[in-house]
Every structure is written in C-alpha cells, then in structure tokens.
What does this fold into?
Amino acid sequence: MTGTDSTGREANAQALRLQRLYLAQTNYLIAYVLIIVAWVSGEYIGDTLVLATHFALGISTQIAFLSIFKSGLNKRFKDPNLASIQITTGTILVSYLMLFLGDLRGSMLLLYPMGLIFGVFQLSMRSYVLHSIFVLICYAAVLAADFQFRLSDRDHTVQLVEWAALACFLGWLCVFAGYVRKLKEQLQERHSTLRLHQETLKGMMGQLQDLAATDSLTGLPNRRHFIDESRRRIQLLGPGKTLGIALVDLDHFKHVNDTCGHAAGDEVLQGFARVASENLRGGDLVARFGGEEFILLLNNSDMVSLHHCLDRIRNAFSRTEFPCLPEGTYCTLSAGLALIQPGDELEACISAADQALYQAKNAGRNRCEAFETAYA
It folds into this structure.
C-alpha cells in the first residue's frame, strides 16, 4: 500500500467517524424534545435552572466531541471512534435526565438502548456487556435516589419491574450485538480475502501485460509495444519538435545461425540488445522488430544527433566479443535513419527508415544511412 492510499483511507475513515457523530446528534435532539414535552405537560419535576442544565451539558459535550474529531485528536486514542467515551457520556446525561422525569421515567427508558446501539459495530462483546451493566447501575442509582428523596410518587414495585425489563432488553441487545459483531468480522475477513485475490490478479495482469509487451529472448519491448508507444509519443509531439527513428539489421545474421547454431544467434541478439540499451538515454526506446531487426525511437532528436547515436551503437557492437563465435569474429549492423515530424504517420516513417536501411545494405553494410541523404 502506498503512502497516498494510506492517507486517503484514513481521510475516508475520519469522514465516516464524523458522519456517525452527526447521526448521534439525533439522540440528543430526541432527548431535548422529550424534555420540552415533559416541561410543557407539567411532568418535569425540576425548576427552570435544572432544565437549562440538560441543554447546557448536552450541547457542551457535543461541541467538545465535534472539536476533538475536527482537530484529529481522536486519532491519538486506541479507539479513534471514541465509542466508549461517547456512550458513557450519553448514559450519564440520560441518567441525570431520568432523575427529573417523574411519572414519565418508564416511558423514557428507550433512551438508554438508543445510545448503546451506536456501539454495535465499534465495541467488543466484552465492552458492550460492561456498558450495559453500567446502564443498569446508573438506572439503579436513579431509582435509589428516587426512593431516598421521594422525587416522585411512582410505585416502587413498578419501577423495579421496569428496571428488570430494561435488564432483559439489554441482555437481548448484547446477544444481538455479538451476532452483528460476528457478521462484521466475517465480512471483514471475506473483504480481506477478496482484496488479496484482487492484488494477486492485479499482479498477474501486470505480468501478462509485461509478457505481451516484451520480447522473451532479448528482454526488449516487442513490435506491438513499440508501435503503441511510438504513436502515443507522436500525438504528444509539439510544434517544431522531431523524433528520431532508426531501423537496424544485423549483418550476415543468417550466416551466424547456419555456421554457429541458433544458440550463438540468440547470444548475438542479446548482445545487441545490451549494447543498444547501454548507449541510449533514459527516455529513448529500443525494441525487437522481428528476427534480426531492431527499431529505435529517440526523443527530441535531429538527424545529426540520431546519426551520432547510431554510429556509437554500431561501433560498440562491432567491438563486442561473443564467446560463441570463432576467435576474431565480430558482428556488424546496418541502420536506416529517418525523422518524425508532428502529424507524421508512423508507418510512413518506418517505411522511410526501411528504405534508408536498404540503401545502407547496398552501400556495403556496417554503416548508417539517413533517408534524407539517400532519397532527397
């Protein structure tokens, strides 16, 4: 995975965390609406100042969480989602609200599991059970305060039954969360397996593309790749710029094959590929065109620099010793040169280089001939 990919995935993950935070605001909005309904209906047993504290605490905690996520400070935590912290905060705020709801308290118990639902995908089974136990402890504390300070006139037995019902529902919710967690892990495992298979297929496709574009004997690009790449470069050729193209034929190569064997011929072909590659610039291109023919494409080249380059390759090749050949036997090459102007057809330029190569052969081989010189 590259650094760019890693950064992109982290940015997407952070954006998803912010979306979950915004979604969690709906719980607080529901709680605010219920507080107002309880106040208007006369069921809220606190005064106006206590009422304001619910809004102040809820809004301030959400602003704090939003600031943490926006600044990226959440990434420093073991769980960058801050799921446990958010659920704990929500549980405490809901419990504080329950103290003042009086007879509406039983109707508002749904606020507890609504907060826990947001931890289904983030929390482990152990953490989810602990949060459920914490909810039951908080609600038990609310009931204890109600019993002690007689905050409402509700029947104590009814409230204990409500606590038991909440415990049963949270127990079921823990089982459901465990099931969802297991499904999530299975999906992640399948996703990882699928990604691994995709990477393998991508690598295989890359290898197939290399095989399709490479000559297996010399390791050079093949004819098809050369033609595709040359056409692409011609399309990008700016006004006043020229490309140099050269068609190279190894002299008397058939004689080498016939007298020394095809293994020797293969070594000579590989030797030329090595010599040509060593004497070209990084952006230049050399390919095997077929048999003992090779073709070269030079960027930003005029006829003088093209001729100089091919002469350098020709001289280096003529001095190369091949163990497969008799001592004192050297190989030579002939080359036909042409220039490519913006808008030229590649086939016409290859034909021009071929005509120049034919002229070089007729002139005695082991030489380079330019199309302009031969046929101007």
User: Anything to note?
Assistant: The chain has a mean pLDDT of 89. The chain has two domains: 3-198, 223-375. The longest strand covers residues 243-250. The two ends are 55 Å apart (CA to CA).
